[in-house]
Amino acid sequence: MPRPTVRIPFDRREAQRIADIRDAAHEDDGRHFNPDFELVGVAGELAFEQWSGIPIGPGLNGAGDEEDFKVAGIQIDVKTFQKANNLIVEAARIKPGTAYVLAQYEPQGFIEFRGWEWGKVMQTMDVKTFGKHTIPNHFQHWHAIRPMHQLRDGLLLLWDRLELVAPAGGIHDGETRRQPRSGRRPFQ
Q1: pLDDT, tens digit, for every residue of 45-91?
Q2: How far apart are CA 89 and CA 162, in angstroms?
Q3: pLDDT tens track for 98-157
C-alpha cells in the first residue's frame, strides 16, 4: 500500500515574487544550489501555510528561513526539493527541537508533503554530501520518516491544551516553561 502524502496547490506568481526578493538578499552567498532554489523553497512554505493554517514566519519576504513556522512553541522548517527522496538537513544548522518537513516541488503548481521528523532524530542519521556540494547533511529516506498526519495530530493536541508546558529549546531539551497559546488554532 502506498504511503499517504499531502498534495497542496501553491500560487506560483506569489512564490516567484517572494523568491525574487530572497534571491536579491542571498546574492553570491554560495548557497544557491540550482537556478530555482528560492522558488522551490518558497513554494513549499506557502503550501504548508495553506495546508496548516499556521502563519508563515517573518523571514518569508526577507533574507530567509531561520524560522519558517512556529506553533505551540514548536518550530517547523519546511525542506522542499525538486527530487524529494530524502529529508536532508544541514548538519551544522540542525536544531533538535525543530520539526523538519519534507516537501516535493511539482512545477505544475503543487507541493507534495511526504513526511516529517524531529531534529533530534535527524541528528542520529547518517551524514553525507549531495551532488557537487561539500556541505555535510543528515539524511533519511522519506519512507522512514513520520507521516504528515502525525505532525498535524500532535500539534492539534498541544494546541488544545489550555496552557502548554514546553521545553525552553524545543520539546527535547528537558527544561520546561509555561507558554500560553496565541493566534488561531492550526489546521482550520
Answers
A1: 999 999 998 888 766 555 555 568 888 778 999 999 999 999 999 99
A2: 33
A3: 999 999 999 999 999 999 999 999 999 999 998 777 889 999 999 999 999 999 988 888
Grid cell 508546558 in the structure block, residue: 165
How far is Cα 83 from Cα 140, in angstroms, rounded to an integer?
Answer: 14
Residue type at 14 in one-letter notation: E
Best CA proximity match to 106, nearest among 139, 131, 141, 81: 81
Dist. CA 177–CA 163, nearest whole Å: 10
